[in-house]
Amino acid sequence: MNPALLSLVPGFPLLGVIVIALLNRKASRVVAGSIATAMVALSAVLSFWTLFTLVGAHGELESLHTVLYRWIDVGGVDVNIAFMADPLTAVMMCVVTGVGSLIHLYSIGYMDDPADANSTWRFFTYLNLFVFSMLLLIMGDNFLVMFVGWEGVGLCSYLLIGFWYSNTEFAKAGKKAFVTNRVGDFSFLLGLFLLFWSLGEHATLQFSELKEVLGAHPELVGGHGGTLVTAICLLLFGGATGKSAQIPLFVWLPDAMAGPTPVSALIHAATMVTSGIYMICRLNFLFAMAPVAMGAVATIGALTAFLAATIAVSQNDIKKVLAYSTVSQLGYMFLGVGVGAFTAGFFHVITHAFFKALLFLGAGAVIHAMHHEQDMRHMGGLLGKMKITGWTMIIAWLAIIGFPGFSGFFSKDEILWLTFAADPAQVALFGPTVPLPKFLWGIGFITAILTAFYMSRLVFMTFFGEFRGGRHGHGDDHGDDGNAHAHEPHEVSPVMWGPLVVLAVLSVFGGLLNLPHWLHAGNLTGWLHHFLEPVFEDAHMRFDAAPEHLELRIMALTIGVVFFTIYAAWQMLMKNPEIKHQIEHFIPDFAIAGSINKWWVDELYEFAIIKPLVLGSRQVLWAIVDALVIDGAVNGTARLLSGASRAYGQRVQVGKVQVYALALASGAALLIFAFAVGS
Amino acid sequence: MDQVGLYPVLFTSALLFGLGVTGVLTRRNVLIVLMSIELMLNGVNLAFVGFARHLGQVDGHAFAIFVMAVAAAEAAVGLALVLLLFRHKTSVDLETFDLLRG
Asked: Looking at the predicted complex, does its ipTM rise above 0.90?
């Protein structure tokens, strides 16, 4: 493959943006959607071509590289708009464009509300712009191109969450996402500046050069475990917490469901939120130098996974449950990359993209069929009414809870096992000897149980039991035409269930990408691991060579507990609601209220950050600094001048031509005198 | 003429210019002021011509001719202005023209 073709991968979606934006209202839903889908599909074809080129080279070819445009060339720093595709990028490109094109296709069916007819072109423009930004983020060969994409996905996220901006709540959700992301982006920028500054005369923004420079001069960033490199990594990770919705910046993601459901699937499940993990994987050689930062990444990841899972168990809005489950799964990914299992973390990115996109699209199909009903308490028994959606959702459910054989099982199990086996010295948040990995494994294990519970709850409440919909006033905009079937949930159109089926197949077989060694699957064993090895090998991560039976026992324990949880959930929710009440007695009221109210994190931020900020801005910055100091200085200058002119200036302006002439003549005389004396 | 040196010419020029300045600054009659300006211009002309002779260059002569042309134009415009001022105020006394007072 000619490397120059790499530019076309982000080029097609950009073309789509331009074409659809120029057509604007003239492009109907189907036209705009078809153009958008076709553009992303073309990118997907090129992405797979890139992947197969790299696979076919068998390690002979390290990466494809192309320079599109010389951007900045000043003072020894040379930054180009250049794209690079190494194995990590190639896999990510395929996930983004592959899952992306399926979601685009699905959106054509989903956005059929007549109220949106005039704005679907806007929707597809944003979707294509998002894919373009995401591709810049992952394909850029230097920090600046990556940062343009990094900001671009934030912008598109804002535009798409606030797509129905006439609803103030939705517009606010978009704003919240944007502002929260900006906080993270600021941290990312600071980390970037610190890194650039510390490199001194070796300064470079290009990833491959950075790797060489750090390999040759690790002392520039303080060497292995140095304070400087730790600070850099923590700041960069701060950026990742914003994009990838980790503590403390995860609050935007649950609100991001204000956008149309395909947006949740594309941005807030499959692609944008994984950019933080991608960034850490890309900079694995840097993070490997900072064990304390690695420990922080893993700990934050595990805690986020747990916290989000505790919230997800009590939410009733189907999209809210999925949103918190995304936050939780992202926590798993950070746990993986944090303990040094970069491949495992990235593997979970891929499988999660499959089943979470499927879950969101399935939820979208349910919401679509239920006429914008999102409360699971009004669903139930939908499996009989929506066979394809129901069964694909069940596959996604099995994948996310780690049912043996499904894709999520392999990726999650690998993360948990490698967390258990990680060398404490490389996750040294509290010192190199503290067995932090074992503790984090414990959190991950409990989270796996919670995951099994809340996902089972979602599936049982939505697809099993009695249909609880059709409440009073529901669907009355259809009019009382006596056609009861118009109100009944029904299966969605093929353009919507087609992508569901494809994603379901991927959710089942995604595990083939990286089969564990104990399956003894020959060439398929650890395929992804071997493929990504050139990217990650310099990080030199160590894991205990524990006996195989320990790994299998831990895995069996996880599976057993997960099975029991599903059974318990079935008993609690479907068979015998009495058990549920009895169990609730055992849980402290505080915990139940905390879960329902999302641990009051939004309220805490409101109270501790937003209120003081608004109050300070209004009472101090506005009332004192702006109104008194700045306005005072500006108005004071004007008042001083006009006062002085009125008092003194007026006397000079006598209006008599001879006085002016005298001033002129005196001035000239003075000048002549000055010249005469001077010479 | 050759016997007259540069200094007497410059002295005469300065005297003419000074007289002109004095007239401009002190006389009340607009017409006299205009005539004084002509005096100043001719004082400058004399200096130009004197220097041109002294340095043996033709530039000063050319300048003098230009100044005469500009002076003629200025006189025409000046007299027109005086005429309009007189119609407005029925006076040629500069003291009465103070519309620009701040």
From this structure: no
